[in-house]
Amino acid sequence: MIEIYNDLQSNVLKFKLSGLITAEDYENTLIPAIKEKLKKHRKIRILYHVTKEFKSYQLKAVIDDAKAGLMFFNAWEKIAVVSDVEWIINGVKAFSFIIPAKVKVFSNNEIGNARKWLYQNNI
User: Fold this and answer.
1) pTM summary value
2) Taking the CB of residue 47, how many other CB atoms lie within 10 A of it?
3) Transmembrane ranges (predicted)?
4) Buried-state track 66-93, b at ≥16 Cβ within 10 A, e below 16
5) Domains present along the chain, CATH in parentheses
6) What is the number of H-type helices and E-type strands within the chain?
7) pLDDT for the residue 8
8) Which of 54, 70, 77, 109 has its CA 20 to 30 A from that of 30?
C-alpha cells in the first residue's frame, strides 16, 4: 500500500510504502498525487519512505515505478529515500546518477535526517 502524507511545504510530497505495493497503488495514488503537485510547482521534492512493514512489489508495480520515473523525469528537485531494504537501497544508489535531481538514501532510523535534508534549500 502507498499512503500520501500532506506537508506544510507545498512543493513536498511524502509517500509511505508498506505491505505489498501494487500497480493500483501507482495508478490510483502515487501518479495522481505527483500530477496534482506539478499543477502548482515546476519541480517537487519527494520523501519516499519504505517502512519496516514493507513486503514486496508486484511486477506490474515495478514497471509502473519505472514508467513514473520516466514520465516525471525532470519534475524532481530532491528525492529522499528512507528504507532498510537492501535491494531498494542498492537500486537507488546504482541509478541515482541518471536522475536530474539530488537523491539521498537514509535508513528508517534516520527519517528525521531525511526530512531535514529534504527541506534544506541548497540543491
Assistant:
1) 0.89
2) 23
3) none
4) eebeeebeebbbbbbbbbebeebbeebe
5) 2-119 (3.30.750.24)
6) 5, 5
7) 67
8) 109
Cα–Cα nearest to 14, from 80, 100, 71, 83: 80
Nearest one of 20, 9, 14 to 33, comparing CA atoms: 14
Residue 66 C-alpha cell reads as: 519505472
Question: Which residues pair with residue 81 across a beta bridge?
Answer: 48, 105
17-27: pLDDT as tens digits: 999 999 999 99
The whole-number pLDDT of residue 122 equals 58
- Top pLDDT among 45 and 7 is at 45
Q: How far is CA 29 from CA 17, 44, 104, in A?
A: 11, 16, 23
Cα 88 to Cα 6, 78, 104, 110, distances in angstroms: 24, 17, 12, 16
